[in-house]
Amino acid sequence: MSSNATHPVQVSDHDFEQTVLKSDRPVLVDFWAAWCGPCRALGPVIESLADQYAGKAVVAKVDVDANQQVAMKYGIRSIPTVLLFDKGKVVDTFVGVRPRGDYESSLRRRLPATA
To answer: What average pLDDT score do residues 104-109 get?
Structure first.
């Protein structure tokens, strides 16, 4: 059953617009890098959010070392930074590792009441 687990979508400079900005669902984007300790600590939280909100929201990760254009466009200066997009706009920003509930409450506010 675990092989069916939903993982965060890996997003690049090339598919960011299509995957994030044009999504019909809210998109939580984790800007991270492999060398970043706090980013690695946040990883399991992001993965569990991807599972929990599968079909309701998109949970994505952007490696800032490999995708500097997107990171620069959104002014990512420290990582981890998590941005919540809704209808192509940034509606919430989290800098540093935050409690899981912060991400969850932000996502829930953007979901339709029936979700």
So the answer is: 96
Q: Do residues 42 and 97 lie in contact, with contact meaning Cβ atoms separated by under 8 Å?
A: yes
Buried b (16+ CB within 10 A) or exposed e, 74-96: bebeebbbbbbbbeeeeebebee
What is the per-residue DSSP string for 15-50? Answer: THIIIIIT-SS-EEEEEE-TT-HHHHHHHHHHHHHH
Looking at the predicted structure, is the pLDDT value of residue 114 above 80?
no
Q: Which residue numbers are catalytic?
A: 36, 39
∠ CA(64), CA(65), CA(67), 5° rounding? 60
Domains and CATH numbers, the chain: 2-65+72-96 (3.40.30.10)
Q: Three-state SS for 10?
A: strand
- Check residue 81 and report its DSSP letter: E
44-53 mean pLDDT: 96
- Residue range 12-40, pLDDT digits in tens: 999 999 999 999 999 999 999 999 999 99
Distance CA 62, CA 31 (A): 5
